[in-house]
Each structure stands twice: as structure tokens, then as C-alpha cells.
Amino acid sequence: MARPTGRPVRDELVDAARDAIQRVGVSNVSFGQLADELGIKAPSVHHHFRRKEDLVAAVVADYRASFNAWADSIDDPSPLARIRTYAARFAAVAEDDQMCLCGAAAAEWVAVGDEPRVEVAAFFDDQSRWLARQLDSAVAAGELVLTADADAIAATLLAALEGAVLMSRAGSPATLASSVVNVVLAGAVSGGAVS
After folding, report:
1. Per DSSP, what are the bridge partners of residue 146?
2. Pairwise CA distance, residues 108 & 28, whole Å
3. Check: CATH 3.50.30.70 for 62-192?
4. Rounded to an integer, what distance in angstroms lies between the CA atom of residue 140 and that of residue 147?
5. pLDDT tens, 36-79?
6. I want to staple 176 with a disulfide (CB 3.0 to 4.6 A). Which of 105, 143, 153, 164 is the partner?
7. What is the distance between the terminal CA atoms of the chain, rounded to a whole angstrom?
């Protein structure tokens, strides 16, 4: 049995795995690789996470919580500006040659396991609801007049943002994630113009 060191190894593993998954995907991350990166022995990884699925579930749950907290902390008074700030986060991920963690996990849906799938699906639900709330607030503030349901627009916008990040890995500009906001909203607002 490993002796406690006072070092937050579990947290370090979650952080290292999150970074690795966002860069190379779930399948290309191994316990041995993470142990080497953190300067620990592979059994130490198994002490904290019995299976890779357990690690991925912990990583996704942590990512989901931190992403939700970040989105809720966007304090611009304009709902449309909050949506643009949100989209800029996806552009920043693309500029860093990463993927959204949940987008990366969804791309390997069959391989990630049941528990991570639940967290990934919950992440997408959370984000769609957040976007729909912003759209509803934009309508209430007179910033937009929607011609479609806010929930449907939110899901489409999230899919477009995830797709833009993925496309940036294949050579599309990282700024595509920011520009999809205008394109998606232009098709969903009365008059087709988004200020």
C-alpha cells in the first residue's frame, strides 16, 4: 500500500489527464504516460483510479463543473455579449490546438465507457441550457427577435462551436469558433441581422 505523501496526486492526475485528452484524445492517454509525466509510479495511478473509465469520468466531471462555473461567471450585462465571450473560449481552445474535453470524449463515444458518457451528455445539456437562457435574456433585453425556439438555436450553436474547434484541428482558422455565433444567430433572428 502506498504511503501518503501529502501531495495532491489525484488532482494532479485529473489535471494532467484533462490536458492530455484535450490534446490527443481519450484513446491516446495511458496510465503509464500520466505516471511518467507526474514522476510517480504507475501503481500510484491505480491507487486513485482503478480503471481508465474511472479517471475519464473524474476528468469530465471536473471539467463540467469548472466550465459551468466559468460560464456562470461571465458578467457582461448584455446577453449577446455573454454569448460572444462564451464562443471566444472555444476559439481560445482551438488556438491552443486543443479540443473541448467533452467534444474529444464524444468523438470516442464507444471507447469512453458508461460513466463518462453520462457526464459528457450532462455537459452538453448544461451548455445548451446556458445558451438558451442567454438567448431568452437577449430577447427580453430587446437584443434579438428569434424566429426559432431558443432551445433549438442553443443546441445548434453548441454543435457549431464544437464543430468549429474540431475543424480547426484540420486546418480551419481557430477564429471560426467566434464567427459561428453570427452565422447561427443570423439564421435564427427576425430580419437575419445580429448586432
Report:
1. 189
2. 11
3. no
4. 14
5. 999 999 888 889 999 999 999 999 999 999 999 999 999 999 99
6. 164
7. 61
Residue whose C-alpha cell is 509525466: 37
CA nearest to 71, candidates 167, 185, 154: 154
Q: What is d(CA 73, CA 54) in angstroms, rounded to the nearest whole number?
A: 29
Our CA dihedral for 161, 148, 71, 17, rounded to 10 degrees, sits at -40
Whose grid coordinates read 446577453? 79
- Domain extent listing, the chain: 62-192
What angle separates helix 52-73 from helix 9-24, to the nearest 10 degrees? Answer: 80
SS3 146: strand
Residue of 187, 49, 62, 72 whose CA lies nearest to 127: 72
Would you state the cell numbers that stand for residue 146, as one nine-digit string?
428569434
**DSSP H helices in 74-113:** 79-95, 101-107, 109-112
pTM for this model (two decimals): 0.89
